């Protein structure tokens, strides 16, 4: 009998941080499970993502080999499929890779005759559950737990969108116009009164127009800021050496 796959405590999840397009009407993002399969995977193993409707995840059965992997085209009938086949080395702790995976991002999956594991757009809001499955030449070797239900966004029907705001009554428009006119008149009066008060306070001090014109002012020139000297050890000349007197030259840090 084949050995049952190891049950890993990792739970897949949508990234909790803000992310553009994290959940759409046909796709969602997942955190990449780094370091999860270390100690279980060999160089020839692959990691798959199993996607199932939330109410069908309990009935999902792991395939015994790659030929039995449920395909994207079987989702409406089988209620589940597997996708995102990736070399296990891409999920190791030392692998430089994107921190997220996108489920449902391959629109070319709808082309006729495609036989490879497809990552096509999800056909409905779901909800869905996902888990990662490590498969080797002899079948499944390790699997994560199922995620919590993931619900996609629902598109808004065009018939529910109001094309234009409701028209206001003519009486409301007349009142609004009158209030706007009164506000403009009041603002003009207040500005005129303030201007007259300021001009009157200047006249008794003997600051007539002629005196005000003949009076000159000397402005203070502000020179441009000069570059500050670099602290010891920051300048490099020739390239590759740092000057730090009285210490001997040392390699530059870039």
Automatic annotation (TrEMBL):
One of its GO terms (cellular component) is membrane. It comes from the Eukaryota. This is UPK3B protein. The chain crosses the membrane at residues 171-194. The gene is Upk3b_1. InterPro entries: Uroplakin-3. Keywords: Membrane, Transmembrane, Transmembrane helix.
């Amino acid at each position: 009998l084949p050995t049952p796959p190891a049950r890993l405590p990792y739970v897949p999840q949508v990234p909790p941080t803000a992310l553009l397009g994290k959940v759409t009407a046909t796709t969602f993002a997942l955190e990449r499970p780094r370091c999860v399969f270390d100690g279980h995977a060999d160089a020839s193993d692959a990691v798959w993502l199993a996607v199932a409707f939330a109410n069908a995840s309990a009935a999902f059965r792991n395939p015994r080999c790659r030929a039995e992997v449920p395909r994207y085209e079987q989702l409406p009938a089988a209620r589940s499929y597997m996708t995102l086949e990736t070399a296990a080395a891409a999920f190791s702790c030392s692998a430089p890779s994107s921190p997220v995976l996108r489920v449902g991002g391959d629109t070319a999956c709808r082309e006729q005759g495609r036989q490879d594991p497809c990552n096509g757009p999800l056909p409905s809001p779901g909800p869905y559950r996902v888990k990662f499955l490590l498969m080797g030449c002899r079948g499944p070797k390790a699997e994560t737990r199922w995620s919590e239900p993931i619900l996609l966004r629902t598109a808004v029907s065009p018939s529910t969108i109001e094309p234009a705001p409701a028209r206001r009554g003519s009486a409301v428009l007349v009142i609004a116009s009158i209030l706007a006119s009164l506000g403009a008149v009041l603002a003009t009066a207040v500005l005129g009164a303030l201007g007259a008060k300021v001009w009157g306070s200047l006249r008794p001090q003997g600051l007539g127009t002629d005196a005000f014109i003949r009076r000159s002012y000397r402005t203070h020139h502000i020179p441009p800021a000069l570059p500050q000297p670099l602290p010891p050890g920051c300048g490099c000349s020739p390239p590759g050496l740092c000057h730090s007197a009285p210490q001997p030259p040392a390699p530059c840090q870039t």
